Every structure is written in C-alpha cells, then in structure tokens.
Amino acid sequence: MDHTELTKYILEKFPGKIELLDTGKAEPFFKISADFLLDFCRSIHSDEKLFIDFLCNIGAVDTGKKFEVVYSVASVKNHIRFDFKLEQEYEGAEIDSIQEIWAGANWHEREVWELYGINIRNHGNLTRFLLPDDWNQGFPMRKNWDAPDFVRMPEQ
Amino acid sequence: MLQYLALASILFAIGIFGVLTRRNTIGILMSLELMFNAVNINLVTFNKYIGPDNLTGQIFATFVIVVAAAEAVVGLAIVLLLYRNWRGIEVDRINLMKW
Amino acid sequence: MEVEVSQLVFYLLSFVIIISAIYVVTLRNIFHSALFLILTLFAVAGIYIMLNAEFLAAVQVLIYVGAISILIIFAIMLTSQLANKQIRQSNEQVMIGIFICSGFLLASLGSIANTVWRIVEKPLPENNTLTMGKLLMNEFVLPFEIVSIVLLAALIGAVVLARKEGA
Amino acid sequence: MELANIFKYLYQSLANSGLPQVWVDIIALVAAGLIVFGVLAVIALFLVWWERKVSAHIQQRFGPMRTGWHGVLQTIADAIKLIQKEDITPTNVDRPVFYWAPIIAFVAAFLAYIAIPFGKGLIVSDLNIGILFIIAITTFTIISLLMAGWGSNNKYALLGGMRSAAQVVSYEVPMVVSILPIILFAGTLSMVEIVEAQAKIYQWFIFRVPFGPIAFIIYIIAGTAETNRTPFDLPEAEQELVAGFNVEYSGMKFAMFFLAEFVNMFTVCAIATTLFLGGWQGPFLPSWVWFLGKTLVLVFLLMWFRWTYPRLRVDQLMEFSWKFLVPLSFANLIIAGFMKHSKWFNW
Amino acid sequence: MKKLINGIKNLVIGLLTTGKHLGRHAITIQYPTQKWEMPERSRGIVVLLSDKETGELNCTTCLLCEKACPSSAIKIVYEKDEKGKRHLKDFIVDHGLCCFCGLCEEACNFSAIKLATKYEFSTYTKDDLLWHTNKLQEVGRDVPYEKVERKKPEAKPAAPQPTTATPSKPIAEKQSAKTGEAISPAEPEKNPELGEGAKPQEDK
Amino acid sequence: MNEYAAVLIFLFVGIGVVLFTFFLARLVRPSNPYKAKNQNYECAEPPIGSGWIQFNNRFYIFALIFVVFDVEAIFLFPWAVAFGQLGLYALIEMIIFIVILLFGLFYAWKKGVLKWV
Amino acid sequence: MTASKALRTEEFLVNMGPHHPSTHGVCRFLLTMDGEVVIKAVPYIGYLHRALEKICENRTYPQCLPVLDRFEYCTSMSCEYAFCLAVEKLAGIQAPERAEYLRIIMVELNRIASHLIWFGTTALDLGAITPFLYGFREREDILDLFEMTCGQRLTYNYIRIGGVSRDIPSQFIPKAKEFIDKFPSKIDDYVKLLNENPIWVVRNRNVGILPPELALSYGVSGPVLRGSGVKFDLRKDDPYSIYDRFEFDIPTGKYGDCYDRYLVRMAEMLQSTRIVKQALEQLPEGDIKAKVSPQFKPPKGEVYSRIENSRGEMGIYIQSPGDSKKPLRVKMRGGSYNHLQVMPEIVKGGKIADLVAVMASMDIIMPEVDR
Amino acid sequence: MGLIKKVPVYIEKFPGGGILTTSLDYVLSQSRASSLWYLLFGTACCAIELMATGASRYDFDRLGMIFRASPRQSDLIIAAGTITKKMSPRLRLLYDQMSQPRYVIAMGGCTVKGGPFYYDSYSVEKGIDHIVPVDVYIPGCPPRPESLLEGCLTLQKKIKKEKIADWS
Ligand code: SF4
Ligand code: SF4
Ligand code: SF4
Asked: Does F82 contact B at CB distance below 8 Å?
C-alpha cells in the first residue's frame, strides 16, 4: 500500500472519527480523539490489511498551548507506517494505556507520564524511572518548567 | 598413652554435652562428629600402644570415618527434608510438631 | 629433649582441640561453630600424626575438613536464619547436659586411670598406607566391600531425600 | 653445583655449632619456611608479571612497560602499593572470619610446598604420604573461600564463595582419581619416589599410553578448575559477581588472596610436573632448573587457556565434572589397573 | 562422540588462533615516547589563530562562532568604540563545556579559530580549562593553517582532495553569499542582528 | 615424627609471615574509616538487607555426592599403593567397589539430580 | 525438577548495577534471586538520563547534531543520519548523490565498528578477554578512517543537514578498500575463536529465547528481531536513501536465542562490508552538501523518520513550529529502549550468568535507553 | 592514620634519617604511581574511549594500570561519562568505598563541568567536583586515548610528589 492508498483506506475505515493532518511530511499523519484511542489501536492491530503489529514510538509534545501525544506505528508484515496523534489540555491530561495491544508501550507511556505529567489510565506501573527517585521538581519537559539550578542556554 | 585416652574422653564428653544442649539439628550433627573423633583417637591410640603388630585400629578408624561421612550425608539430607517441611530445624520445634 | 617437644606439641594440640570443641558446642553463631569444628578436626589430625597414623591423618583432613565440614557449611547456608545471629542455639537442658557429661567424664577418666594397660613397646609397621592397602585387600575385604554398599546406600538415600517433592 | 648441597652444608655447620639437635632442626625448618616463602613470593610476582606479558602479547600489545625493563618491576610496585592501601573492614562483616580467611588461603597454599620437590634433594620434608598430604592440605583453600564469602556479609561474595566451594569440590574427585594411576604404577605416595620412578624420559607417566595422557588431561582440567581460572573462573566472574568472594577485600588481605591464587596455580603445575613430567629429572642442567622449566611450561599452558576461552556457566561446569570427568577418570583408573596387572609398560 | 572430538578440535583451534597472535608484533603505540600522527583534520583543542607575519589574532570579533557553538563554550568580551566597531577584550573558551564539534571553526570566516591537533592538556584544577585569549593564542601560535579568502566560510585546514574540491566550491561560495547577506564581515557594525546579539552578551 | 614437624613449623611460619606483612602494612597504610566507606559494596547501591542470606543452595546436592566419592577415593589410595604386591583379585575387588559407587552416580544422574533446574 | 522447586528458601533481592561490569554502563537490575536463579529482574534506568530531548529543543537544527552524536555514541553516524533524514524530509531538502554515498559508507562502517564493540563486550561478558581486544583492534582501523575524514573518533558531527560536512581525503578510499579486504579474514579469526567453541556454544545456545511474537509486541527490532527469525530490515523493507541500490542479504536466526543473535550480528558485519565495497565502487563525483543556512527554519510540520541502526530501529520524531530555528520537539527512539523492556520476560528462570549473556546479546547501550 | 606519619619526626633526628625518609617516600610514591588500578566505571561515551584506551592500540597496562571491578581494590576512579543527578550519589558511594589512597580523574567535558549538557539539561550534574575531589581534569568530548594517557601521566606526576607525611 502506498501512502495515498493507506490514507484513503484508513479514512474510509473510520469515517468521521479521524482526521488527516497536513503537517505530516513523510507518512500519513492522523489526528484522533483521546477517547477513541483504544478502539482505534485495537482495530488497526487486528485489521487484516493493516495489521499494525509494531509500535515504533510514543512521544508527547508540549506545544505551548496544549499537549499532543504522537504515536508512530508500523506493520512489519505489510510494510506500512503512519502516525497519529491526539491532543490533551494542560489541565487533567489523561490518556489510555495501550499496553494490552503493544506491550512495548509500557515504558513509552511511563516516560510521557514522568516527563510531561500526562496521566496514563490503567498503566499499572507509573513510577519514576528516568528521573532521580527523590525528584520533586515537577515535569521537566514542559515548556514552562524551571528550576533553580536549571541553566538555559544564553540567547544569541 | 593415658593422656590420649583422657583427651579422647574429654572430647567425647564435650560431644555429649553438645548433643544434649544444641537446639539446631546441624549443631547436633557436629557434636556427633566430635564424638566420632574421640572414638577414633581411642582406636588409634590402642592400635599404637596395645596392638602395634597390625594396623587394625587404624583400619577401624577409617571405617568409622566412612560411617561418619555416611551419617553426615544422610543426616544432612534429613535436615534438608526437615527444613523443607517445617522451615526450621530446631529440635524442640520438631518435637512440638509431634514427629 | 625429643620427648619433651612432643609432649609440648601434644599439649598444644589438646588445648586447641578442647577449646575449639567447647566452642563448637556453645557458640551461638552456628557458622562459627562449624569453623571451630574444622579446627578441632584439624588438630585431631595432628594427634593422629603423633600416633604414627599419617595416612589416617590425611584421611581425616581430606574427609572431615575437605568434605564433611563443607557439607555442613552448605547445610547451614541452606537452612539457618543466618542474618539473625542472636538466635538461641542451645535449649533448656544445659544444666542436665553439664551434669551428664561431667558424670561421664569422671567415670571414664577414672576407669582410664584405674585400668592396667598392657602396653606393647613396638613400632608400628613402617609404611602404613601400604600395610593398610594389604590389610584391606586381605583381612578386611568384606568390610571394604560393605563400605561401598554403605556409601551407595547413603548416596541413594541422600539423593532420594534431597529431591523429594513438596511437603 | 647443586643447590641441595649448599643447603646440606649449611645444615651441617648449624648442627656442628653445638646447639641441641631439636633447636637445630627447628631453626633449619624455620629457615626453610622463610626460604620457601621467599621463593614463592618471587615466583608469584614473576607469574603475575608473566601473565600480564603473555596476555598482552596474545592480544598484540606490550603489557607493563614503564616500571623497570619491560615492566619487570611492575608487580613489585603493585605489591608495595597494596601494602600502602587502606585496609577496610566493613561494619557488618563477621570480623574474625573476615580477618582469617586470607591468612588461611595463603597458609593452605604455602603448606603444600613442604612436600613438593623443587629439585634433587630440594624438598623440605619427604613425607611418606606426600601427594595425599598436598591434596588434603589444599582443601583448606575451600574453607578460606567459604570464610571469605561468609565473612564479607555481601551477597556477591557469598555467592562467589559458594560457587567456588562447589566447584573445587566437584573437581576434587576427578583430580584425585586421575592421580591414582600414577600412584598405582609408582607404588608409593612419596613425591620423591614418584619422581624417581620416572628416571628415563620414556618412563614419564605422561608417555605411558593410554592412561598417562588421559590422566594428565583430566588433571590439567581439574587443576584449572581448582585454581579458579578461566574457563572455570566462576567464583571471581567479574561480569556476574563483580569480584566474587574477594569483593570486600582491600589492601594486604586482597594481596594475600591474589598471592594464594598464583601460588595455587604454581602448585597445580608443580604437582603435574612431578607426577607426569618426571619432576626434576633431566639431563645436563641442574635439577631445579628442569623442575622450574617444566612447571613454567605448564603454567604457560594455563595462561594460554585463560586468554583464549570464554567462561562456563556454573551448572555446566558441575555437569561437566560429574557426567564426564568422573566416569572417565574412573575408567582410566581401571584401565591402568589392568595394565599394571598385565605388566605392560612396566619398564 | 563425534561432538566430543569436534569440540576438542575447536578448542585447539581456538588455542592456535591466540597462539598465532603471540608471535605477531604488537600494534601498541607507546604513547609518551611514540605518538600517533594525528590526521590533519583531527579535532583536538580549540585555539585562536594569529597572523603569521604580524602575530596578531585573526579574530575580528564578529561573534559568529559564539552563536554557532552548541554548548555555549565560547564567550567573547568586547567593547564598542564610538563607531560601533567591536574590539576584542577577552576571548574565553571553556574547555569543560566544549564538545569539540568544530562548528565554531566552520562558522568563522576569518580563519581565526580552529580545533588544533593538540590534545595534551590535562590539568589539576578545573579553572585551568577556562582558556583566555592569551592562552588560546599561545597554544595556537604554531598551528599550521591556511588563511582562506575572506569570502569562504569554511576554513579548510587540510587541502581538500583535488577531484572533489572543485565541485564543492560553488556551494561554498553560494553559502557564503547567503550568510554574507545576513552578516557582512567587512562591515560588522552595520549589522543590526549582531548589535542585538551583543546585548545579552553585555548582560552576562 | 620429625617429618611432620615441618608441617607444624610451616604452619607457624606461614601465619607468622602473613601477620608480619599485615603488621608492616599497618605501619604505612592510612586508615580513615567512616560510615559510607564501611558500607557493604553492592554495585554502588546501598545494600538491600543483610548479606547473610539463606539461599537455595543447589550446590548442596553436589556436595553430598562429593562426600561419598571422596570417601571412596581414600580407599583407593592404599589400594593403589599396595597393588603392586597384590594380585588380580585386588583389581577385581576394586572394580566391584568402583562400579557399585558409579552405580550410585548413575542413579543420581538418571534421577536428574545432576541436572540443575 | 529437583529439590529446588520444593525448597522454600528465602528469595533474596540483589542489586546488579548501576555500577556493574556487565551492565554496559549504568543499567541497574533489581534481581529477585533464588540461589543462583533469577526469579525476577526489574530494570531500573535513568542513570544516564541527560535530557537530550530538552537540550535539542533549545538548539538550532545544526546545533542539534553534536547533541545527537551523544544519543547513541557507538553509532554516532547513524544518529546524525537519522536526524538529518528527518530534517530533510521536513524541509524537503535533497542531499547530493555523492553525499548520500558518503553517508552510507560512513554509516555502514560505523555499524561494523559498533558491532565490534558489541562483539568485544559480549566476549568479555562471557569471560573471553582476548576477543574483546581483537574487536577493538579492528575498530581502531575504522576509527582511523573516520578521524581522517571528520577529525573525531567517536562524536563525529560529520553528517549534516543536506549532506556531509567534508569530503573524504584522498587516502580514504585506498585505506577503506584495504580495510574491507582484510576484514573478512579478521572475522575468520573471531569465528575460530568463538563460533564453534563448545564453551561458547553451551553458554549461548537455548539461552534467552525470544519468540518472535513477544519480540514484536515489545517493539523489538534490528538484529535481535532478526535473531528471532523475523526477516525485517528497514534498509530492505522500508528503503530510505539509496539502500535499494546495493546488494546485500539480511541474515536471520532460527531459534531466537543468544547464539542466533550472535550469528546474525557476525553475518551483518560481513554484509556491511559488502555494502561499503559496493558504495566505494559506485561513489560518484559531485557536491557533498546541499545549501542549507545555519539559521534555516524548516516549514511547519512533523515527521517521524526511522533508520536501521546497528541496534535496531532508530527513529527521530521532529516537530517544527515553522517560525523558529529551533525544533519544538525532538523525540528519539532507540532500539535498546525496547530491548531492555523485553529482557525481564526472557531472563526469568535463568541463572545470573544467563542474564549476563542475554544482556550482552541484546547489545543494550544505555544512552539509547535513557537519552 | 598510618603510624608512619610519625616516623619521619623521629628518624630525621638521626644522621642520615632524612635520606632514609626521602628514599622511603620515593619508593612508596613511585610504586603508588606506577600501579594505578582503576575502577571499571564508565557511564557514557567516554567509557568507550576508556575501553579503547585499555585495548591493544593504546594499552593501559603499559602504565601498570589494570581494571578492577570492586572499588575496594582500586586506586583510581576514571569518571568516564556523564554523571547525572541520579548517578551522583552512587559515584560518591563508590568513591567512599574505595580504600585510601585514592584518586579521581575527571575524563571529558561532562565530568569537568557538564560539557555539552551544561545548559538546558535538568538532570546532569555540572561537574563531578561537587561530588568527589578530583585530581586531574582531562578536557575533550571524548578525550582521545592519548589525552587520557596523558592525564594519567599527569596524575602520576602528582602522586610522585606526594609525601607520606601529608597523607590523609
Ligand atoms: S568546538 Fe563546538 S563546542 Fe567547542 S567551542 Fe567550537 S563550537 Fe563550541
Ligand atoms: S567567528 Fe572567527 S572572527 Fe568571528 S569572533 Fe569567532 S573567532 Fe573571531
Ligand atoms: S564528555 Fe562528551 S564524550 Fe564524554 S561522556 Fe560527556 S558527552 Fe560523552
């Protein structure tokens, strides 16, 4: 499947629930709503034509206005790759865990929680792992984060 | 010669004491080994002073060592079993369990 | 002079034996007991040498120090709550124990002193390994083979006991 | 010409000085002890240096170069440095056990040299149970390892100690049984007599096919395992147990373990030389040169193993011993028995 | 049985393989006496280059390197004269921050800063790694370099391979033209962007 | 007797030499114990619990078998020494002896005791 | 089952790491052990969390490259490459032909160098010390090539957005050819030392078996995935750059144990030499860099770009706000991150020595995990 | 405190005592300098260069430096690689657990001052001299093996100058 076919296929499979973004430069980039995440993942995982069996990456983004969580997925069997993302407000950001579909999501989600403070529902093991155990300075990857010993690069 | 015998009996007595007072099964086994040794000292002493024509005493001592080894093997295997069953190898506890 | 030195060595060895044997039966830390057991046994090997039983001494060291005590230490590692050294290792029978063993001691020392020993002043056979080998193959052939049976039984017994499943 | 004569002369002059015989003997033995200690220390220092050189050249590097000529003083520097190192006794260790473990390790290795003939007449005491004595006395090494493991109050150390004990114990059987054919043919336990039984080169036990070479191979394998060297260096396996039983040791105590390790290695090779390679026997050169030369060749072999092979896993190690070496060595013994009986090779 | 023989065979092969190397010559370079010849492009320590004849620094205080530096290891202290021309007061490279990426060297249009092929600068104190102008100049004195035409942005110390140098030239020129638009090296005082850049500099 | 005096004296010499080096080291070495230094090493983490763990020692069974074989070995020594003066029957006796014990080994082997699970 | 199962001895916790010789840096495992057997292994990471992503957010695109070098230092070239590919996709830049070839030569050489580190450390972890030094000996030759080209041995900063920073010097090609020619014989030495060595085989065979389903579910990629028998290599299956012009095979394993992973990597080194050889032959003349201003601002957009690194899929996600010289977000994804996740699953019930073997065969490198 | 610290005070009173102490000093410090066993401690990129230095081309062993896995037996920490805030207590603990005399080499920018991670990083320790006393700093990112060797030689120079009397 090339990119246009793939885009068409996905858009037709989930009519109305999914939106194609124009920011994606290489592969199709979709946007879904947060509550649709689990269903979406389940169906792309089990769909015969897609068979997305490989989770490449989960990355959170702080755009300065809200959070985005970007999922990059691929199919080893069908050689497909695309991304989708969902948006979350600053306050009470919370997404579902997709570990049941791809076990490898575990740490990615933990990292999203730890560095951005986006809560992961049903994760089961949300404990510190990248930061020191006694870390109490908030979520460092947020854009507005600051701490006393944090030195910003001098502006040039 | 007498000194050897005396030594052996002291050792034996200490062994008896250990067997009587140790709570730990392994401790009892160790005390038993002491007693075996006391016996062996006697055997070898008699061999040297009373029957030096032959080495019968020493052979017997060797056999005693063998028996001690066999006893240790089986005894410790039993200890293992005890431990496995009751998570403890103290003798009085085993008594408590009506074994 | 020669005699005196050997007396001296004997007293040294007996001292080591008795002190460490007492430690064996009284120490709270059972691992230490095991180490003192080793010391006792080693000193006993010295006594064997004094009694011209070199082969037996080597056997003593090889079997007791090299094998049985290791087995004991392994068993200790396997079964005791080692971290807790303060566990009481002796039971309430201490007094009875002292009583019984001193009774025994008195009786045996007394009988040792009172017996008339017929001491034969004659050196032991030169090479006691060789002699023992011959003895084992001739007079003691049956016990010798029985030893193997005993060992086999011990081995099988231990294996069966050690691998028995569950409680 | 022979070192032994010098010692004899010294002993004689001591005896003539009018001291009571007992004291003469005691002084002679203490002197012998000190000499043996000195020789061992030099040998161990040399072996450490040599090992580093051998490994370096196998790996196309130089090894120590900057302390003395080609780094010959390197190990001496190491030793002096170790003397200066602080001696840490962690708080929770079992102090007496912790303290005595290295001493026992060294003394056990040291005592074995009473019965090893360095050359013709160069033996401290020709015990009539020689080889048995060495085997017996070296079992104390196991005890010292267990003590070190236990005394350190450290899980890695304990695991290392247990491993090494189990390992030494497992390889003890094939080692002993592989020695037996030699005793069978020599008919004695005395080291000197065993050497004398191999006066001609064809009498060397290693050349008595088939049992000789097999016994030799078994002995070398078991010896490697007994001295905890690769491929059997599990107790100290850096990648698994950090440094194994000596993880908590520093300064001189560590040095003692280190020394004992190399002395043990030398012991194993020295015994192999005595039993299989004719000991000090050899033409032209002084006997101790032959002895040292043969032993060092074997030491080199062990080093070569170490720098070539990966390490076995603990259970594989045990299985190898019990399932392969033990039956093989017994079979070898039986073969040797038949050969002895049928008077083959009884030259 | 076959497995056994095979195994022994392979063990022996292993021994022979290591044994083979035993006879070979070591490849070690014995460092303090023998030294590895550093390739010309090697990026050792950061130095300032000075003019061969006059002995003065090549630097024109254009601040490009400071901007390009990804770890902000360069600090340039300068003062402006009345014409707005900058005079270098102190050029500081913190070798504790520098990641030896070479971006400064590429950014400099005046062959004034370079990563020399020197590397032996361990010190007992941390502050000794903060190099000021004189030290940078001192160490850079004997560093060979090719004074590149002003228009060329990348000071190439190594003579580029003749075959490839020719085709790569046009880009280089174009690029310099582009950067030249933003920053005119000849008349730095007229560049508004640099003026802005100077402000936070003074804040420090 | 005198032969074995060497053992005793070497024992003392050995211990003495070691203790002497320890003493020498005490002269030159610094000593500065403090709490963190005296903590047990556990890969740069504070150790969890005591190091005296009571653990499942699977080596135990090997030690059991070893004892048996060690005892066997000591009987082989006199036999080996005396064999030259004995006849075929000694060989046969010994083979019986060995085989009986090897049977034990094979029993353990078959029972899977030698296999480490 | 022997005594072990029935024995209810104390299970004990033991730390392995962060300072442990075999954890390749600073990974820490909290092991629950039963004697020598690992019952449970919980990885603790973050001891090398250097906030690379945060740093990248505050750097201009060219300035990100030195930072990226430190993301996965064993194969810095790949990191730069992945990042540059992503930025190029984002901004629609096409690197010149010659640059593409140079990149591939460098990346493949770097892959060999990285595998040599793996080879050495694996051997070291399993107790063989000499192969470690042999591996590093060959690696030095590769580093010489790198150093003469870009001046650094480890953190190259060579591949740039739109091309490479410098053309190769004139001695490069003969030297590289010489290396390529002699390298297979060196591999031969390694094979002789380890491949068939019975000790090596028993240590690795049937140890740490990773079934393909588990591997995929955990996002395992690269040689580890191929060791499990899944024939998937981004260079072939999702070809980026000009990889479709080269002929090479994708070695795969069968059982997914440590030995297979070992074989796969050994074979991969040879395949990489093949690629380098072809690339050196086909190397065209021409530009080495498209024009990219140091101050350039890519258009608004986001891209996830992935390449086949020596440790698996290396992905870089970049979001560009469109009006800034600096990226809004750079997210790095390294293969080891997932490999380490799957490790607890496959070491369970093994010995502590198996854990070491598995760790070595996974070729985990901590900065990729911690970033 | 080693007893020997007091020894010079007594010996030097005798004729020739000064020479004795200096030569003792010389032997001791020389041997300390030529037998630096380093702790196997590497966290990041610099660790690879550390390994490369130990490998055949550069060969640490020439200087008498071999690695030990246990801090108890090592004399020197070569802090190779970034020390993060999470790691710094561990580094301190390792340093504490080394037996004295002990030395620290800070290898590479990260350990000197935070290197490329000084700015904008919330988790990198800005120089390990906050954690442990450092003897020698080596610039570089990573320092070449030669730089590291040079750093070790610098440290040796420093050690050779040490006197027994000023030990801690
Ligand atoms: S080399 Fe890089 S980090 Fe160092 S001063 Fe230059 S630009 Fe800055
Ligand atoms: S870029 Fe060159 S000329 Fe400009 S300030 Fe830096 S060193 Fe000086
Ligand atoms: S100094 Fe540079 S090379 Fe060394 S660890 Fe830090 S970033 Fe890596």
From this structure: no
